[in-house]
Write the structure tokens for this entry.
Amino acid sequence: MNFRTGFAAGAGGVLVAAAAGRAGRRVADRGVARFESRLERSVRRLAAEAEQGGPLVRAALAGARALYDGKSPGRALLSFGWTALKETLKRIFSGGGRGGPVNIVEQIDVGAPCRLVYDQWTRFEDFPSFMKKVVSVDQASDEKLHWKARIFWSSRTWRSTIVEQVPDRHIVWRSTAARGRVDGTVSFHELTPDLTRVLLVLEYRPGGLFERTGNLWRAQGRRVRLELKHFRRHVMTRSLTAPGGVEGWRGEIHDGEVVRTS
């Protein structure tokens, strides 16, 4: 290879490398542009939702804005955490956490006959033996119950009155308490002779600082879901093994009055 041929080959290689570098930069620039575009759309969407959203939405907006402004992911995470804490405290101490009741709807399928599932549910005083947060249940009469449960690091007591109860179908109750109470309905649906669906609809009115904080993050819904799983486990590991020992209450209540006792 003479000098001219070698020089041409070297120059060609340099040109090819330069072209490849420019192409690589264009691809990288397009990738960055797409990321920035998506981030900008996210910021706009979160900004719109933040007007009606809770602390998590506002915190996510703060983190996205930090990234969009060129801050590191670590700084963006700090912005997220600080905003979440600030918004939560603001809602608590300004009364924003005392809004309307929390509506909780949960369901669970239990592998047992509907009658057995219903009978076990009516044994309210058994609840503390398998539900983690229920401390005690005292049934003063067929329609009157006194409850005590743990809420975070404290306890709450309330009284509930069953206003409607039909065997194997549903139970409806209302509650009174100084702080934090629960009204609700539980219904029982036979899917097959050995499979029952339990549908629980609660209206929870939180009371106290920690309950209002939990309300903001919907902690009560997760607790209800877990307690339903405890109920299912109890039915399928205890009640099914000795169904004859589960004597439920088979009476009826309408408008808060007992109309049939068995």
